[in-house]
Amino acid sequence: MWINPVAGGNVLMQGDTVPVNPNNGRSTNLLFRAHHYDPDFPGFANRDLNPMGTIERTRPMNIVVNEFLAVSDTCCTDQAGENEDFIELMNLGNNRAVLSALFFTDDHEEPTKHRLGIRNQGMGANGFIGPMRPVLWADNDLDQGMNHLGFKLSSDGEFIGIYQATSYWDNYPRLHVLDSLSFDEQDDDLSYGQFPDGSNMWMQMLPSPGAPNFNAAEFSLLEPSDNTQIVIDENNVDTGFITFSWEDSWNFTDNEIVYHLDVSSNAIGDHDMDTTGTSVLVSYQEIIELMEENNVTTAYIDWTVYALDNAGTLEAENAPFSLIVNGENALASFEEELIPTQFALHQNYPNPFNPVTTLRYDLPENSMVTISIYDMLGREVNTIVNEVQDAGYKSVIWDAVNMYGQSLSAGIYLYQIKTEGFVQTKKMILLK
Asked: Could you give the domains of the chain?
């Protein structure tokens, strides 16, 4: 008996290997043909044997679970409008990935439990590229589409595995483990995900299927409501305030959240402020002074708030809001009275406060002004004004920090103004 290779082929003996280099993941068939010239076995001569195996793909992909939700009560609706568990994927590899080669399971002893049937859907390389972020619904309802898995996740904790079929032999897949994880008991409507995305740093978070993971909760702007109109006149210019307020955000770590208020106006300029509170007060007097400086009587204002921690930035979900301020009456009535007749230091507002308050004072003439903060032992903790200022109605915001930028503890503090020939001190209360 002897073996004659097919034209262009090789002679193979038992135990030999066949080098195969599939082009860009395409299937390659291995076909064996036997030639037998022994007269005792004439029936085998030139007979083609069935293909023994197919190499489908040899390059492992780098797809991972980026976020999952194991119990959905009130959130996360699929295309059928039902609240369902989900698994969000991320491709960390350098090549576009095809999802049809993937198996998903919640049982490590059954790695081929569910094969994804999305043959034409791919994932961009190097993280989330493009608008599509693959989300698979773990609802054990295959009739609702090919992005639904044949199992549900357990809130008591279990296993998630992603496997890739890198080859087939005798119609059985040879599997490569792409990602696997085990999780403990989960809370209702709170997902578990990587933050930042693809970082392998896992934490509990608000679900965001198909969107970037974020550590903080969404929040909304409150007041002034969108498209509010405010009229400043001679009756309220001395006592009125605009209160910018918003909901409190939160995160799942101990990171402090700082809110950045951003106010923009073509009429009176752009202004911003950072605070750890959920409101900022701006006096009507400040608005009128800005209008007078810019020679306008009406200001159209847009405002928004950002929540910042050391891991990211989140804008209020209903931002921006618009605001119209009409100061025509106040400007007409007090155009000559914008210069006060005497020095004065007014009570801070709000008082008590946490953590921001506004100190107002009057300057009848250009003056060198110093405003300092003291504790009840008379120790100076900060100087917030120390400069020559023009005459007018003035104000300064203090955010309850000392001269080193450190937050102060709750208590009673003194604030004092000094000018040439005028000194006045008042008390204020800081709450925590």
From this structure: 1-53 (no CATH), 63-213 (no CATH), 221-334 (2.60.40.10), 339-430 (2.60.40.4070)
